[in-house]
Structures are given as structure tokens and as C-alpha cells.
Amino acid sequence: LFIYYKSNFMFSLNYFDFFISWELCFVLTLSFMMKFPVYFLHLWLPKAHVEAPTTASMLLAGLLLKLGTAGFLRIMGSLNFIYNNFWVLISFIGMILAAVSCVFQSDAKSLAAYSSVTHMSFLLLSLSLLMLSGKVGGLMMMLAHGYTSTLMFYVIGEFYHISSSRMVYFMNSFMGSSLMFGIIFSLIFLSNSGVPPSLSFLSEFMIIVNSLVISKLFFFMIFVYFLVAFYYSLFLILSSLMGKMFINFNNWGSGITMSTVLMMFNVFWLSVFY
């Protein structure tokens, strides 16, 4: 998928680049919206993540959600001929409501699942703007979310296998138990909230700049989203690092993820896209 988009990026190679009605385009995109998933069609995702084993969650978040995006990219040519304000509105509503839903989650896996919904709504906003720079930002977001969410589910799964609990309230004392695990956990959730110099920050910055070109009012809605998103990420990091329990983490297992963490905070991707 990456090689395809890298080689054919400057061309509008779409299966659907002809004029179709708004209704037909809406029906065509609904299946991909379910796979994104956008808010209001997202209810299967938290349930699937909570029930699935760690490996399945990592594959679902890192790989399968991107198939909906790939399908949507295929029919983006048709969006040139219709008003796509509906998808922009849905993406803004989804970003804010899913971020607020994250704050109220007690299950860490469910929190990570709702976090995926917020990022996919952000991605939908980027693609709905119908700019080449929006397409580049969207592809970077796919890549960033693929790394970040996979690692989020990995560290939550590691904690679950050791403590037999995924409750946010029981996740504590990472700093006292394993400094390595605590640092990796912090880096992953900081990347999830879009802290520089992570790839998430670069992609989100590009999407914000693109949306500001369309309307200055977009900034306020994005500001609300970032406020809430940073809050729940920071809350989870702080509550996890502090505490007096002792959890016997497998440091070697968490050390394997360092290569992916480096890819997440790597400026190398900028040189690939430009």
C-alpha cells in the first residue's frame, strides 16, 4: 500500500472519478466509514478490542482500520463533484465526542479504541478537504496511528497479562516497577496525544494548517479536541507512573518495541514524503 501511494501520489488514480449523485456517493462511502470507523458507526470497535486478545487488537488497530481509509482514497475523485461538508461535520463531531468518551473509560483497551476513533475522524477531516497536502497529511496520519495504536495495545496487553486487569485505576507504579516500561509507556501515549517531534504531531500539524486554509473557525473545534485528548493521555501517564505497588514486568519484551518507538518519533518519514 505504501509503495503504491508513493509511486502514484501525484496522479489522481481513482476507480471513481466521474460525476455521481450525492446519494450514491454517500452509499458508497458508508461501508468505508464503518471500517474507519467514524463516530456514530464506531460501536463495534471498542467491543471488538475489549474482547480480542492483544495480538488481534494490535492487528486490528494497526492494519485493518487502514483498509477503510484505502477504500475511501479510491473514491475521493467523486467527492470533487459534490458537497462534502457532511463528512467534515461528522469528522469534527467525531473528534470531540470520541475524545470526551475517552475521558470516561475505565477499561484501558476501550480508551485506546476510542482514541483510534478520534484519530480516524481527524484523518477523515484531512481527506475531506480534497487537497494534495491533505492527502499527504492523511497518509502520514495513517502511518503514525499504525505505529502508535499498535504499541498502545501492546503495552496495555502486557500489563493485562501480568496483573489480569485492564482497569485504568489499577495501572500504577510503572516507574517503581520498571523504568524501561514506564518510559516506553509515556512515549507511546505522548505520541498518541500529538506531542512533537512525533509523527502524529507532524501529520496533525499539516491537517490543521490545511483546515485553516478552508476556514478559521475550524481552529476552535480542533483546539477543543486537543485539549481533551491531551488531558486523557496525560491523566493515564501520570496515574500509571505513580504508585507503590510492584509489578514484575518483562523488560526484554518491552525493549523489543524500542525500534517501533523510534519509528514513531522519527523525522525520516518527512524525507520520504517530500
From TrEMBL:
Pfam family, one: Proton_antipo_M
GO function term, MF aspect, one: NADH dehydrogenase activity
Highest rank taxon of the organism: Eukaryota
Bilayer topology annotation: Multi-pass membrane protein
A Gene Ontology biological process term: ATP synthesis coupled electron transport
Cellular-component GO terms for this entry: mitochondrial membrane
Reaction equations catalysed: a ubiquinone + NADH + 5 H(+)(in) = a ubiquinol + NAD(+) + 4 H(+)(out)
Keyword NAD appears in the UniProt entry: yes
Entry keyword set: Electron transport, Membrane, Mitochondrion, NAD, Respiratory chain, Translocase, Transmembrane, Transmembrane helix, Transport, Ubiquinone
Known EC number: 7.1.1.2
Top enzyme class: translocase
Domain NADH:quinone oxidoreductase/Mrp antiporter transmembrane: 24-224
Main localization category: mitochondrion
Purpose of the protein: Core subunit of the mitochondrial membrane respiratory chain NADH dehydrogenase (Complex I) that is believed to belong to the minimal assembly required for catalysis. Complex I functions in the transfer of electrons from NADH to the respiratory chain. The immediate electron acceptor for the enzyme is believed to be ubiquinone.
PANTHER family, alphabetized: NADH-UBIQUINONE OXIDOREDUCTASE CHAIN 4 (PTHR43507:SF20)
Protein's name in the database: NADH-ubiquinone oxidoreductase chain 4
